[in-house]
Write a structure and sequence with these properties.
Carbamate kinase, alpha/beta, 21 strands, five-stranded antiparallel sheet, homodimer, globular, eight-stranded mixed sheet, VC0802-like
């Protein structure tokens, strides 16, 4: 078997939302099979299944044990894998579905946020060689103690990328309900344009800045192992967006996209005593809970109210995923108290607006243009962070769309270059 | 750990039909835990989950591959196991859920109808010893190749009985939505009475004759390994019906119950050439499909219509579970043709009415009384079969309730003895 002949396809929840859509996916999979490819198909849970299961769990407990959440949530993908296998059989082709455990996906065992540490390929190769289409339940694996673990948000993408890597697949296709990667969210920006190609690095920044199409960690993994990605729609046969190493043609592009992430929350610890070790303590405790902190800023030291002039203190702000806010507040409050800080404030009404582009490397002045545009649009900037190819600003959520539209226009992203 | 201290509890689908009921089950489990017992709890899928999953499968294919059906159906019990573990945690007790695979339930690998061939207990003992309540997804196991297999109808009962046996549990409690085993179906017979105890043998006959409360094969297994059973309601704390070896006090009882099974279908092969081997061929082919034939009758040989006088032929009738009718018809038609039989007729409008009682062993005349009662009620008998402690008659389905009521009255089952 030539491994370039292997295509890994991943279908997200909206692509397998109901029986009709599962049948459509089956037809597409079979089409590729008849073209001579060996197919390994990763599926997410049916449409709303994940939400329905979470509703059951949170109907029972506000803090369900994460081990049991994994037991619960992993069933969603198992259901769609079995149904897709049935739909392919119905078309007269052989297919076999596997759970993460059966496929040999071994994880580090961190419940609800596991990382893949090993992948078996014997079983998959055996089934491919016998002519079968292999369907794998995404988002899950087991640890060495046979405990079921899920891979966190976008976990099915990770499953697909990891499989494409170990099988040395010719292509890893990520099927979704949009036609590819856009310069911005078409629901917000009317002239947002589909990109034909984009580099791993830019896609990674776009994803971590809020582009929903694929999770940042999956792109990071694809980049690391040079897995060619093709993000496309399961509702059409049009080409989507290819994600590859930086291409020559991309170099002329200053900015590739403007994104917004409305799913972050800001936490501010007031009057943190300005001495070494306090911040470290806080972020160590948060990391221990497996919470990803995104932006961190610290105001210049000032005299704390009501304290002696010599006792300097500072305000420390950071952002975390909205879903982790409760857990983060709990940890932060405990440590703030211990460190004799002033108080902990949460802000759930923020959004992060980012511009991303490899062109920033060689062109200065992007940040200045961005701040200028936001000022003209009367959008106040609460926090700023930058990377080599990205600038992000936290603004009030109600200003987010206005900011995105203004930036998309400023950098002329609607025009084909 | 004293093993008599272990209680295995099995909760059926109606007992865990929704969040409120799962919470109620959790409270009951915890109550037993606080009384000092070690709890191993087997759960079925939530209420209608099984039907919902089947609807998805049959929405995709009329003949879904059984391997994939097992992948699909096994998720139902995994969901309830995880949710019950969460509900117990919420009450402040430690619980851990296992799939059949994780619990070490090894089966023979026959999809949708597997039999347990081995059970691991190390993991369960370890968790019990650490003080945890162990929750196990019923109805499922894996074969030696890690293929998920389900145990067929009533499979969660089998899981519970097998666990009670290997753990040498003091009691195996089967929770259901009725208060125990009744002399007949209370929905049909108004003065049907709950039995305080019943022998394995009688319960086995009642179950195979149509009593819904527990599957015959689970009772057979309990009897074989002398696992004490207590069938009771999850909606009250009243004692239910104990199922044990034949007790002294039971000997005076002539008949314990009257049952009806409306879920069988009758198949008749007309004009089967009356020579050795034909019947064997038919039932061998049906057995190969894992279909359980219940009653078989063969009419006396007669001259086949339109054939030479010397060519004798016979009509052969048998019953199978209604759900297997389609599959059975297919097999039967093929063999009937091959054997040059006349034709195959199916009848889906039958019911099997049975009287069961260990007292029959020492008292003759029960059959005569039964036929007499049915004749007086103007119920025609289509087929008859008997065992040492049971007499079953196939009647038209529309006459079934009338027959049951008349028999329940004749044998005075409404009166406490």
């Amino acid at each position: 078997m030539r491994s370039e002949n292997i295509i890994v396809q991943k279908y997200g929840g909206s692509s397998v939302a109901n029986i009709e859509r599962i049948k459509r996916v089956a037809r597409r999979v079979v089409l590729y099979k008849t073209k001579g490819h060996d197919l390994v198909v990763v599926v997410s849970a049916l449409g709303d299944t994940t939400d329905e299961l979470l509703e059951l769990a949170y109907g029972i407990s506000k803090m369900p044990p994460e081990r049991e959440l994994d037991m619960l949530m992993s069933t969603g993908e198992q259901v769609s894998a079995a149904l897709l296998a049935m739909a392919i059989h119905k078309l007269g082709y052989e297919a076999i579905s596997f759970t993460g455990a059966q496929a040999g996906i071994i994880t580090d065992g961190v419940h609800t946020k596991a990382r893949i540490i090993d992948m078996g390929t014997d079983r998959i190769h055996k089934e491919l060689e016998s002519g079968k289409i292999v369907i794998i339940a995404g988002f899950q694996g087991i640890n060495v103690d046979q405990e079921i673990t899920t891979l966190g948000r976008g976990g099915s993408d990770i499953t697909a990328v990891a499989l494409a890597k170990v099988l040395n697949a010719g292509m890893c296709e990520i099927y979704t309900d949009v036609e590819g990667v856009y310069t911005s969210d078409p629901r917000v920006v009317k002239d947002a344009r589909k990109l034909d190609q984009i580099s791993y690095e830019e896609m990674h920044e776009l994803a971590s800045a809020g582009a929903q199409v694929m999770q940042a960690r999956s792109i990071e993994a694809a980049s690391k192992y040079n897995v060619p990605l093709h993000i496309r729609s399961s509702f059409s046969y049009k080409e989507g967006t290819y994600i590859t190493k930086e291409a020559k043609s991309m170099e002329n592009v200053l900015i590739s996209g403007v994104t917004v992430n409305k799913n972050e929350a800001k936490i501010t610890i007031c009057d943190v005593p300005d001495k070494p070790g306090v911040a470290a303590k806080i972020f160590k405790a948060i990391a221990k809970e497996n919470i990803n902190v995104d932006m961190i800023i610290q105001n210049v030291s000032r005299t704390a109210k009501g304290k002696a002039k010599k006792a300097l203190s500072t305000d420390l702000s950071f952002t975390v995923p909205g879903g982790d806010l409760l857990k983060t507040m709990k940890v932060t409050r405990a440590i703030a108290k211990e460190a004799r800080a002033g108080g902990v404030i949460q802000n759930n009404n923020i959004a992060k607006v980012s511009v991303v582009g490899v062109g920033m490397r060689s062109h200065s002045g992007v940040a200045a243009r961005m701040f200028d545009v936001l000022a003209k649009a009367r959008v106040n900037i609460e926090m700023i962070s930058t990377s080599e190819i990205k600038i992000s600003c936290v603004v009030l959520r109600k200003h987010a769309d206005k900011a995105v539209i203004a930036l998309h226009k400023e950098f002329e992203l609607g025009k084909k270059k």
